[in-house]
Structures
1.
Amino acid sequence: MTGQKKVPFVTFLTRVRDDSVPGPNPYRWEERTSDDYFAGKRVLLFSLPGAFTPTCSTYQLPNFEDLYDEFKKEGIDAIYCLSVNDAFVMNAWGKSLELQKVELIPDGSGEFTRKMGMLVAKDNLGFGMRSWRYAALVNNGVVEQWFEEEGFSDNCETDPYGVSSPQNVLQTLRAVA
Ligand code: BEZ
């Protein structure tokens, strides 16, 4: 991916807490667009194959959360974790990990991931279409740095993880600062 690629314009369907909603589940739908997430900000986006999966839940997402303040020191305004999962799943995942800092983006339809060129089949795991692992430094919607795991492919037998790890991304940002 070149340095001038823009993230696609997509509308994400999120679920947000709203205590004015009656009943035991006080959440409502809220549409958020790519502009809401990316316009006028320098952010770190990372994307992974699925909520609650082992590497994502044990290492990648919690480590980004732990290193959030270090990323802030490098001029990052926000960190987004995107997955081809719906808003209910993403919210449950964030709650289970007690996330406070990293924001979750539900790409339930896979539209953003497809338009980023990162949609892969994971039918070998019964997952359907999901995101290849990557991270990107995105400045006002423009991809400035790209961190893609090797071996982009459908039904990959392995789960390469390293290039898009928070440790590697942070080290790279520090080196180019
Ligand atoms: C993992 O995060 O460990 C994982 C991701 C996708 C499929 C299987 C495992």
Note: The first helix runs from residue 34 to 38.
2.
Amino acid sequence: MLRVAVVGSGPSGVYTAQNLVQLDPEVHVDVIDRLPCPYGLVRYGVAPDHEKIKSLQNNLRAVLEHDRVRFLGGLDIGSGGVPVERLRELYHAVVYCLGAATDRRLGIPGEDLKGSWSATQFVSWYSAHPDAVDDGFVRDVRSAVVIGVGNVAVDVTRILARGAVELSPTDMPQAALTALAASQVTDIHMVGRRGPSQARFTTKELRELGGLPEADVLLNAGELGLDPAYGDPSALPAVQRRNIEALRGWTDHQPRGAARRIHARFFLRPVELLADPSGTQVAGVRFERTVPDGHGGVSGTGECEEIEAQLVLRSVGYRGVPLEGLPFDAARGTVPHRAGRVLREDAVAPGEYVAGWIKRGPTGVIGTNRSCAKETVTSLLEDASVIVRTEPGGDPITWLRAEGFSPVEWSGWESIERAEAALGASLDRGGVVKLPDWRSLMTAAHGDKAR
Ligand code: NAP
């Protein structure tokens, strides 16, 4: 047999497991996760109102229920948990599918003021991530600035703009729903430093903003006109062309006088987050007007604009974090690799692989992970064809238990699912409601053996 550990149960980890069991009839895969719940960003990143994308969990579930795949949740790898070296001894091969767990920084003054958050922190809160903080994101907020124009920026803008009736049937945790239902936010400014033809959002996500029942989308036609492609988008790639067409369509619309306004802004580079008189709380963002530089970038004009904000969400992309014992390219936020094989000091490290965002950086949609995982699994199985497939030292779970680890197995996850269904029913929310903290998750998973 071939025993493989996959670290991370998000899409890249699950697609890796799927490729392995499809391509090798002898492989047995343990999919390990730090959290007691599987699915990574599909559970803790895809917005709660995107039910269709969330339903991908059903496909991922089928892989994790395969008879040669085991889910081992609640298990830390690296510092404080199972050392990387030990994991390598327990399995013939280890595939790290760690994703990109943190956010990029802006590196401008005021970034750490109260009320300034990374979009990741906000997303974690409304997605019930057990490490999330509930710090009154929308309390006393009238105006919010979202920095960045990628799909995460669109997600957080949309969640801020939605009303309670729209959010209630989702699996959003009750505390976040209550806070968002009471939100007094009237203006949400989603701001790009470059032009509309360089925005990173996809058209379906962009168009959704225009269909929100309680929000108008407002555009500054002058900013759109600054984009050289705005006049004639025909030479652009399809996504950018469709984005421009969608934005153009909105310039003709009269606002309906909705309770909330989404301002889609472009050619504004954040320069500083401004404090209120107390000096601690964010009160606005100073932007510098930019213009296209003719090479796809922008240059500053020296002209500034300040936008009021009691909440700033910095949505400028994710970033991978190093794992103790695994090499890391700090500049790229990824693990160095060759076709998925981990490189240690430029040489292939036998038995160690990467897939997903920790391999290629935080880009692409969920489906991109399929081909990424396939490349890695192809490398792994090529290498495995020359190794002796003996048991590396018995079933790893025996060692884990002997060392005091008690992983959450699939039955534990199913208990969490039942607890979330029961919570949704008790709150009359019309479906599942997520458990938001470690204690309730571990209590559900292990009965009374709470973490
Ligand atoms: P992203 O697509 O990389 O977008 C990041 C945005 O931040 C860009 O507009 C970028 O502008 C801007 N930015 C970066 N540094 C900046 C700075 N210093 N100052 C101002 N703006 C800055 O990242 P993301 O939105 O976090 O998305 C990550 C990945 O997840 C993407 O592949 C995305 O498609 C995917 N995702 C998909 C969905 C979906 O399909 N529904 C939902 C969420 C996420 P520049 O272009 O000028 O650098």
Note: The chain has two domains: 3-101+320-408, 104-317.
